[in-house]
Amino acid sequence: MPVTHHDILEGFAGKERRMLSRAITLAEREAPGFPGLYDALYAQVGTAARLGVTGPPGAGKSTLLSALIREYRAQDKDVAVVAVDPTSPFTGGALLGDRVRMQEHVLDPQVFIRSMATRGALGGFARRTHEVVDLVDAFGFDRILLETVGVGQSEHDILSEADLVLVVLHPGAGDSIQALKAGLTELADLFVINKADQKGADRLETDLREMLELRFRDHGKDVPILRTVATTGEGVSELLGKIESKLAEFGAQGELTRRRQDRRQAQVRRILEQQLHNQLFGSEAQSGRIRKEQLEDTSLPPYTQATNLLKELWGAKEHSE
Ligand SMILES: Nc1nc2c(ncn2[C@@H]2O[C@H](COP(=O)(O)OP(=O)(O)OP(=O)(O)O)[C@@H](O)[C@H]2O)c(=O)[nH]1
Ligand SMILES: [Mg+2]
């Protein structure tokens, strides 16, 4: 029997993780009924703190997340992980890696782990990132950890869903700092030098401090740098303490509220763009207001044609009301 929205709403109330997975799949598939389901759950969004974690491939992000989950679980907090891999198709190596790295938590009913591909068949996630994270939030986790690699557009999108962004680096990756210049520094609220057991951690920290000094001297932004060894857990409880104190600081400064408002505004803009697009060109549910013949008409230059079409539409709208 197909699962109805009613089943999903009840599943959320009863904390059935299977129903959370279902809801996420509906979002990814951009199912026609999804907006109704999302809005019905919306009142429950906003209780989870969202932590974005990014950094170059192999920095130890998944291992570090696994260690963080361990700490949160010791405090009896429920944790969800949404891992986004923009580079490989769904069966790709990194996603598999995430699973292996977080193996110890897979059977824990208080931990939810979902890996996403932003390319290929499930590419709908790229357009519904915000909604997917909100669903996880609405389900009722204390912390949501968002893992992604690198600095492309889809990574940027997922990090903009975070309340606090951690950038994880490791010594030896000579291009680590170089890669940061491509835009991550602005997003970082906290740096982690992972694999601090390896040679080069001091050097990396010096370089990083120098760069932060140059960038933020005039802005007064305080971006802490912490060291961890994710494989042994060294430094992880200190990191968690810093994460929590930053969250509290952001809360007190109104920064969390500001970030949430920005996300909400961006979301409504996206929805409006989509709805306008559908109104103009049609969707499965409705036909578009621009007729095919109107587009085929080549009597006017393109910009003039488009402007006239819009004028006609808005004008027609005004008359009909
Ligand atoms: N020596 C050392 N190795 C580590 C540490 N943290 C992680 N590793 C190892 O580094 C490798 C990569 O770790 P992952 O956690 O998969 O790294 P990741 O950043 O999630 O990688 P991608 O998701 O593929 O970008 C694994 O073999 C880990 O065991 C550390 O602190 N010290
Ligand atoms: Mg990983």
Physical arrangement of strands within the biggest beta sheet = 3-2-4-1-5-6-7
| Count of separate DSSP helical elements | 13
**What is the overall silhouette?**
globular
CATH architecture label of the largest domain = 3-Layer(aba) Sandwich
Question: Can you walk through the features of this model?
Answer:
By secondary structure, the protein is of the alpha/beta class. It folds into three domains: 46-252, 3-Layer(aba) Sandwich (Rossmann fold), CATH 3.40.50.300; 254-289; 290-321, no CATH class. Helices cover 51% and strands 12% of the residues. It has 13 helices and seven strands. The chain has helices at residues 5-13, 17-28, 34-41, 61-74, 93-101, 124-139, 153-159, 176-180, 201-216, 236-253, 255-281, 292-296, 302-320; strands at residues 49-54, 79-85, 111-117, 143-148, 164-169, 190-193, 225-227. The protein has a seven-stranded parallel sheet with strand order 3-2-4-1-5-6-7, sandwiched between helices. Helix 9 (201-216) links the parallel strand 6 (190-193) and strand 7. It binds guanosine-5'-triphosphate and magnesium ion (MG). Residues 57-63, 94, 97, 101, 149, 194-195, 197-198, 229-231 line the site of guanosine-5'-triphosphate (GTP).
Give the SSE map.
Elements: H1 5-13, H2 17-28, H3 34-41, E1 49-54, H4 61-74, E2 79-85, H5 93-101, E3 111-117, H6 124-139, E4 143-148, H7 153-159, E5 164-169, H8 176-180, E6 190-193, H9 201-216, E7 225-227, H10 236-253, H11 255-281, H12 292-296, H13 302-320
Parallel strand pairs: 1-4, 1-5, 2-3, 2-4, 5-6, 6-7
Helix pairs in contact: 1-2, 2-6, 4-10
Bound molecules: guanosine-5'-triphosphate and magnesium ion (MG).
